[in-house]
Amino acid sequence: MLRQSCATALAALFWLAQATRLLADTPQPPAGDEVLVSGKGIVISRGDLERDFRRVLRSATEQQQVVPEDKQEVLRAILLDQLVFMTLTTNHATLSEVKRSEFEAGEFIKAEKLRLGTPEEFQAHLRSQGLTEEQLRLQNFREVLSRTVIQREVNDQVKIPTSDIKAYYDENPARWETPARMQIAQIFFSTRDPQTGEKLSAIRIAEKKARAIAALDRAQKNEDFSALAKEFTEDEPAKARGGVYSVVRGQAIKELDEAGFAMKPGEISRLIESDMGFHILKLISKTTERKLPLEEVETQIREVLVQRDLKARLPEYSERIRKQAALTYSTNAPRRSLLGTP
Predict the structure, then answer these.
(1) Strand-by-strand arrangement of the 328-329 sheet
(2) 297 vs 175: CA distance, rounded Å
């Protein structure tokens, strides 16, 4: 057991050392592989790009989608741009971030094996992606590490003053208005033909009304309303949940809206007749219209403002680290101009 634990620990340390070296040094492509982008701490080859390109094409095929030939160069440009950005961000990682991301990559592999069920299914999944287990681990490691660095260097730098939150709240009053809402249980008897939507005959409507009156009588004698709904209601989608609905004022048909909002919680309605049929309601709960106070929506507003700030900061951050890396693109590299980017 001790020997196995030591071996596991040594393997993890070896992998971490590999990952750290990959990030610390400027990696070199295999001999004969064309360099598409190079700069300080970054070399991306044709092989790197085509590996990602094939992975995306395989994923599209699995989802029964096709990337048209005239769009494939644009796809390559997108993937190359992502590769550059991810590599540059990971070059800014701290050792603790590398260690944490390595741990998360290991947990990701464990979760994938558990999700796929058997070693054979896991290997089949790797083959479908054109990856080895270590390549999948490294791919996830880099993605996690890149997000971690962006969180520290961009997201964590966003500071939203309380005054900005208050201003946003005041400038968008309609967003904080909440309409009256009720939760009701309904037993419904339709007076329309389910196939044609036409009104049933007078005899059939009378039969439905008699059944509705019988159900109402049992409900008023305190029988379990949910059980009655499951027994009687002709509203099939709601039958399994005991006829329960959540309704915003003004969204239900007029007869139900007026009756439901006039009731008290726990109260059972009279027999209600509408153009659709007969209804029996039980009010479970209701709320009145109100304006949400700032204290209840402050976190939500802060997140909106953070995302708005990040939308501006991320492109600035991307351009800054690209300039710092002094990137050089091969004449054969898919151009960023295909993305509308200089």
Answers:
(1) 42-45, 35-39, 328-329
(2) 10
